[in-house]
Amino acid sequence: GSKPQLQSLNIYELSCEVIAYIANRLPKQSGITLTCSGEKNARIPGDWVLLRWAMENIMKNAVDAIGLVNGKIEVFISINENGILLDIRDTGKGINRADWKNIFRPGYSSKRRGWGLGLSLTQRIIEEIHRGGIRVLRSKQGETVFRLNFLK
Questions:
Q1: Phi, psi at residue 117, to the nearest 5°?
Q2: One digit per residue, pLDDT tens: the chain, 152 residues?
């Protein structure tokens, strides 16, 4: 497609918008709570639409991992000497350590449905367009954390 135009954006505001979007689309019987916290003024050069899609994808996967039981999805934003860190934590079923690299491969999926393209596209949006990084920081039953990092 066309080359995205990166503009200064508030990653906290973007994260809160995605959380509101996901929360409004949860099934009524869902016990999932969503929160956003951390640095409210963190800004990165980015494309709002593409980053929003990438974050939606991670959070939709988290909803699938939690299911309809009580659970949490939390976004925490921090700043360090290297840039902006965005941690997306969920209380779902976890990802096997052996699959941490595979989940970003096109066509890989642990779901019965789906094409296995979401996380590979998310990785491209984060790394190739925004010159950031995405990885599984930790994962086990009851806690998975994806870390996204961006230069200031």
A1: -110, -20
A2: 678 889 999 999 999 999 999 999 998 888 999 999 999 999 999 999 999 999 999 999 999 999 978 999 999 999 999 999 999 999 999 999 999 989 999 877 777 777 778 999 999 999 999 999 999 999 999 999 999 999 87
The structure tokens 């790394």 sit at 127
Using alpha carbons, select from 8, 5, 16, 6 the residue that is nearest to residue 76.
16
Residue 115, CA atoms < 13 Å, CB-side half-sphere: 5
Helix 11-24, helix 48-66: angle, nearest 10: 50
Tokens encoding 25: 């689309």
CA nearest neighbour of 137 among 100, 106, 109: 100
- CA-based angle 46:34:120, to the nearest 5? 45
Taking the C-alpha atoms of residue 77 and residue 148, their distance in angstroms, rounded to an integer, is 10
Residues 6+ apart with CB under 8 A from 14: 46, 48, 51, 52, 55
